[in-house]
Design goal:
Elements: E1 9-13, E2 16-21, E3 37-39, E4 42-48, H1 65-76, H2 81-97, E5 100-108, H3 116-127, E6 133-139, H4 149-160, E7 164-167, H5 175-189, E8 193-197, H6 208-217, E9 224-228, H7 231-234, H8 237-250, E10 252-256, H9 258-264, H10 280-285, E11 290-292, H11 309-319, H12 325-334, H13 337-343, E12 357-360, H14 365-371, E13 375-380, E14 383-387
Parallel strand pairs: 4-5, 5-6, 6-7, 7-8, 8-9, 9-10, 10-11
Antiparallel strand pairs: 1-2, 3-12, 12-13, 13-14
Helix pairs in contact: 2-3, 4-5, 5-6, 6-8, 11-12, 11-14, 12-14
Bound molecules: zinc ion (ZN).
Zinc ion is lined by residues 46, 48, 106, 196, 227, 295.
Length: 396
């Protein structure tokens, strides 16, 4: 089904889309799309494959960010390469089966994790390249200035094949120096940057002005992302407008992680807990590139998860009070084209483009978002990678 609801055929040759149109003459194998909506697949812009599926090792009591970091740090010290490989493979397979064709995963590199997680995820990336493109962000979850050897380890990770570098200023005793250290690495290796930032509901003390200043100073517009940024949900409209303007000016993309942001923020309140989810539509209206992502699968940061970006997008749309078709289409972009733009990878179904195609059992993008439509089949570079037949009823 094309964007204007007219059914079309899509012809593939040499891993690329050769032709799009009604009733294309052909001699090769065919797949009946049954009028389903075809798109380029979901793009997961922010996930942690290394610490996924560890709920059995982490007894959650408080459900706070502080507890999640502490429990995971403890579990991480016991990760082996084989263990990370196994859990990450399971998550990647789920993602493929949910129609995800591209992914950015963080991978923690520090004195506790060593390079075990990185080595495992580099191997996962190679072993699943037939179905999904995975890029790895070498990530300092637990500070740099308090543990300076982490900076050297991040550098080694980039030399070993990590694709970009990420930091988490709010866990560092010196957030400003943390941001500078990450940019220093990014410049040295000419790689993109992805920060976890402003993950609380205090409208003040934002790190965004520092990140924006460094981005502009180094000419890094279009190469920097920030995840969570839940402070934006707590700001006054005027302060939000200023922050959005700053992000747009610096070309910084925002990744909203609704499952985690809802779970970890607003703790300790007996009633009317805030949503704690950054206002993506407002940011978009100010020209900020916004994506939505899963963040974590079954761990203390997010004790939920099926790797479905359709479900994450639906959750966000519900929390954000969205209703119109145009809003649903924007939310769909946040898990597809916007996320691809953030990762700076080619995306979309057009003649000559890479034949990454997913069929979703819906009439339109908007319909898919409203109903969390199931995906039906997918292709990576023209090769079929999965199929999920429609559920059947057996009437009496
Ligand atoms: Zn994250």
């Amino acid at each position: 089904m094309g964007a204007d609801s007219t059914p079309v055929d899509i012809a593939i040759a040499g891993g690329k889309i050769a032709e799009i149109g009604p009733l294309i003459a052909h001699s090769g194998p065919i797949q009946d799309g049954q009028g389903m909506f075809a798109f380029g697949g979901f793009v997961e812009s922010h996930i942690h494959l290394d610490k996924a599926m560890i709920l059995d090792r982490c007894p959650i009591c408080e459900g706070t960010l502080c507890e999640a970091i502490a429990l995971t740090a403890k579990a991480k010290a016991g990760f082996t390469e084989a263990d990370v490989y196994l859990r990450a493979s399971q998550v990647v397979e789920k993602a493929i089966l949910q129609g995800t064709t591209r992914m950015r995963s963080f991978v923690e590199v520090d004195p506790r994790a060593g390079f075990r997680s990185l080595d495992a995820l580099l191997r996962v990336g190679r072993d699943y390249a037939w179905a999904i493109d995975i890029e790895l962000c070498a990530f300092a979850q637990e500070g740099i200035t308090n543990e300076p050897e982490t900076a050297d380890m991040l550098a080694q990770a980039l030399e070993k094949g990590a694709h970009l570098v990420g930091g988490c200023p709010y866990t560092d005793p010196d957030p400003q120096a943390h941001v500078e250290a990450i940019f220093e690495l990014a410049l040295r290796y000419d790689v993109d940057v992805d920060f976890h930032a402003d993950f609380d509901l205090d409208p003040d003390n934002s790190i965004l002005p520092k990140i924006a200043a460094e981005t502009i100073r180094h000419g890094y517009q279009g190469r920097v992302s920030v995840g969570h940024v839940t402070k934006l949900a707590a700001m006054t409209p005027e302060a939000l407008k200023t922050a959005a303007g700053l992000l747009a000016e610096a070309g910084i993309a925002v990744t909203i992680l609704p499952a985690t942001d809802l779970f970890l923020t607003g703790r300790g309140l007996q009633r009317l807990a805030p949503r704690g989810v950054a206002p993506g539509s407002v940011l978009s209206a100010h020209g900020v590139l916004v994506s939505l992502a899963s963040n974590n699968i079954l761990n203390p940061f997010t004790p939920f998860g099926d790797c479905s970006l359709a479900r994450i997008a639906n959750l966000y749309a519900n929390v954000a009070h969205l209703a119109r078709d145009v809003d649903m289409e924007q939310v769909f972009s946040m898990v597809t084209a916007n996320a691809a733009l953030q990762l700076r990878v080619p995306y979309g179904i057009s003649v000559g483009s890479i034949a990454d195609i997913v069929l979703i059992d819906a009439q339109s993008a908007s319909d898919a978002m409203r109903s969390i439509a199931p995906v039906a089949a997918g292709w990576k570079r023209g090769r079929k990678t999965f199929e999920r037949p429609r559920a059947k009823l057996y009437r009496p």
